[in-house]
Design the sequence.
């Protein structure tokens, strides 16, 4: 993030963060900017120390220009990856950590809460009643589907048993018929030979 971009984000975001700022004492964007800047500072310090160590230990193997180029490439790679990760972190933090839920009221604003609570509870009751009815309907439908599936399975089991019995009978009858035919053929062959 560059400073102009950060400033415009802080200005735009702080208008919507007044309640959070009232509770926390700082704006959520200033919090994330602090983390972002601290990371960049630590990364810069760490890469600088690494560069110095490489130049000191391996100056006979690699030139200062090569080290500088590679460190710049590493820094760009880390910055790109960190920017992507930090965008997700920032979005999650703004929406889930540093965001005061709509149902939370600060002590100094409790006076305004009572009327809103009554309306909200009535709405929630209606929503829950609709959800209960939908679940009851779904349970009823699923019960009917389960009953139909059980009946269908029973019919399929009966059909399978019938097919297995038919197959066994057909197999036994075929063996007997083949045996009888062979006996008859042998008798005819014997008769033909004798005549």
Sequence:
């Amino acid at each position: 993030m560059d400073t102009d971009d950060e400033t415009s984000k802080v200005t735009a975001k702080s208008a919507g963060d007044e309640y959070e700022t009232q509770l926390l004492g700082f704006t959520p964007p200033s919090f994330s900017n602090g983390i972002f800047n601290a990371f960049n500072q630590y990364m810069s310090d760490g890469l600088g120390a690494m560069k110095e160590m490489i130049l000191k230990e391996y100056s006979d193997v690699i030139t200062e220009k090569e080290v500088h180029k590679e460190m710049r490439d590493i820094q760009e790679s880390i910055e790109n990856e960190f920017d992507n990760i930090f965008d997700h972190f920032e979005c999650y933090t703004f929406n889930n950590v540093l965001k005061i839920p709509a149902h939370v009221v600060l002590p100094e604003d409790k006076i305004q809460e009572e009327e809103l609570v009554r309306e909200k509870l009535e709405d929630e009751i209606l929503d829950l009643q609709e959800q209960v009815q939908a679940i009851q309907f779904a349970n009823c439908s699923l019960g009917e589907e389960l009953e139909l599936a059980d009946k269908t399975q029973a019919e399929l089991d009966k059909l399978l048993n019938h097919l297995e019995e038919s197959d066994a009978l057909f197999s036994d009858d075929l063996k007997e018929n083949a045996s009888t035919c062979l006996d008859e053929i042998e008798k005819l062959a014997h008769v033909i030979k004798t005549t």
